[in-house]
C-alpha cells in the first residue's frame, strides 16, 4: 500500500529544495541591445543575439527580452531577434514589450518564445492576462510590474505604486493589490521591477520583493538594482524571490554568469551548477 503522507512530505521537501533561477534581462531597441538607468539615458551596448548565446553557454537559466521600442513598425525586427535567439539558445526564453493582444503573444510564441511578459497593456486592460492565459497557458504568461515607492496612504497602503510607460505614468494602483489580481487573472509568474533601483547596481528593493512574495503563491522574480552576487543572495533569501534578473553587471563584463552562480553557491544558495 502507498504511504501517501510520505509522498506528500517528499514532494513538499523537493519543492523546498528547488534551485533559484538566474535570468538575464536584455532590453532591445531597434534590434540592438540597450541599457538605461531608471528608464532614461538609454544607449546601445551590443548585439542581443551574441549576448544571449554567450550567457547561455556560461550557464544562464533563462533569458528575458524586452522590446523597448514598442512600436508596431519595429515588431518585425523583434520577431527576427527572437527567431535568431531560439535557433541558438536552448533555455527558456521570455519576451515582453508592446504585447497588447493574444495575437501579439501567439506571434512571439511562434517565433520561439516560451513565455510572454505583459505589463502596461495589462494594467490598462487587466483582462489581457486571462485572455493570454487561456490561449497559451498560465505557465507561459508573466506579469511584469514596474513599481515605485510612495507615501503610504489609504488608497496605497503598501507604499508601493504601479507605474507604466517606463515609469512616466503613475496609476494610483497599489502594487500588492495588483500582484494579487494578476495572480487571480491567470499570470503564472510575476516580475517585480523597482523603478527606484533600476540600473543603479546598488541592490534590489528587498522590502518590495518580500512583500509581493508574501502576497502571492506564484513565483516572484526580482528585478532592478543587481550589482554584485551579494545583492542576488539578499533578494533570493531575505527577499524571498524565486529568481533574480540581472543585466548591467553581466552586460558590461563586470561578472560572468558562471561567476555569479559560483558566488551564490558558495553563499549557500541552491543554484543549478551543471549544464
Walk me through the structure.
It is a single chain. The chain is built from eleven helices and twelve strands. The protein is of the alpha/beta class and 275 residues long. The chain has one domain: Aldolase class I (TIM Barrel, Alpha-Beta Barrel), CATH 3.20.20. It has an eight-stranded parallel beta barrel with strand order 1-4-5-6-7-10-11-12, surrounded by seven helices. Strand 4, helix 3 (75-88) and strand 5 (93-96) form a beta-alpha-beta unit. Helix 9 crosses helix 11 (257-266). The N and C termini lie far apart (38 Å).
List keywords for this structure.
alpha/beta; eight-stranded parallel beta barrel; 275 residues; 12 strands
Average the pLDDT over all residues and give the rounded result.
Answer: 87
CATH level-four homologous superfamily name: Aldolase class I
Assign the CATH class: Alpha Beta
> Helical residue percent?
25-40%
- The sequence of SSEs as H and E is HEEEHEHEHEHHEEEHEHEHEHH
Shape: globular
**Cα Rg:** 18 Å
Based on secondary structure, the structural category is alpha/beta
Overall number of strands? 12
Architecture (CATH level 2) name: Alpha-Beta Barrel
How far apart, in Å, are the first and last alpha carbons?
Answer: 38 Å
Q: What is the number of helices? A: 11
Main β-sheet, spatial strand arrangement: 1-4-5-6-7-10-11-12
Assign the CATH topology: TIM Barrel
Give start-end ranges of low-pLDDT stretches: 1-16
